[in-house]
Design goal:
It is a single chain. The chain is α/β, with parallel strands linked by helices and 313 residues long. Helices cover 40% and strands 14% of the residues. A seven-stranded mixed sheet has the order 3-2-1-4-5-7-6, sandwiched between helices. It is built from 13 helices and seven strands. It has helices at residues 10-17, 34-41, 56-65, 82-88, 105-109, 135-141, 144-155, 160-171, 179-189, 203-214, 220-230, 244-258, 290-295, and strands at 24-27, 48-53, 72-76, 94-100, 231-241, 278-280, 303-309. Helix 3 links the parallel strand 2 and strand 3 (72-76).
Length: 313
Amino acid sequence: MEFRHISVLREECIHELHIQPNGIYVDGTLGGAGHAYEICRRLTPEGRLIGIDQDQEAVENGRIRLAEFPNVTIVRDNFRNIREVLRELGVQQVQGFLLDLGVSSKQLDDAGRGFSYMHDAPLDMRMDNRSDLDAAKVVNTYSQEELKQVIEDYGEEHWAARIAEFIVRERMQQPIQTTGDLVRIIKAAIPRGAREDGQHPAKRTFQAIRIEVNHELTILDQALSDMCELLAPGGRICVITFHSLEDRIVKQTFKRLENPCICPKEFPVCVCGRKPLIKNLTRKPILPAAEEIENNPRSRSAKLRVAERLPNQ
């Protein structure tokens, strides 16, 4: 299956990165390499693009898609390990980072990956198939309270407790093995009258389990902090999010790095000595234009936040 992925907010990201033709840029979520391709088009042979993805199919696709460009390095890893990746490549600072968070169109559309509630497939949801934890383990081995917490925290699902109860009850009879089985259980758990917002009843629970399997939120704050520290002065980081949980972490992390002072508010001057690392360039996130949403409905929930590394203090 071809790695099909429509890059969201592509032109906005390229504009905000302020690409220097001889700079070093890192796409930490290579995916379909759409953003990476546009970055490479603007680099001279002295410039460099480092693409990172934990999905082997994305890595293979990136090598094909970017084969025409010199000085492209593609690494199969998680962006949480950005310090180690750059250290092994002998890179100390970069001019820009790009993160396009969440699941790709290819991962959703490939029924066998188990990401989508629209296809019946084995419960997997791993972005990195080398991981020991998959959706089947979460659904069949987590306690009822752990399941409730995951679905509530990562899916913001009002019926989390009832869904967890129904999952545990079902698996006592037999293991839950497919996405179809899980969808059926979720539909049974959520009363018909409660389905008022038009969303698929399994959407929030599938999101929650996917986030848990891939540790998507627990790694984000530290990874963003590391990237901001690895930016050269004037370098920029662009982060695209697709739900409020991701966006909140990005917003709070940028705020903390822009104003790291921990002095009590009543102090007339800062005495903790902590200096701002970045300038937050997006008090309000950049959203897709109406035309992009029409052409790619999956972009509807996308938000782009941008920060710039301040000069060394």
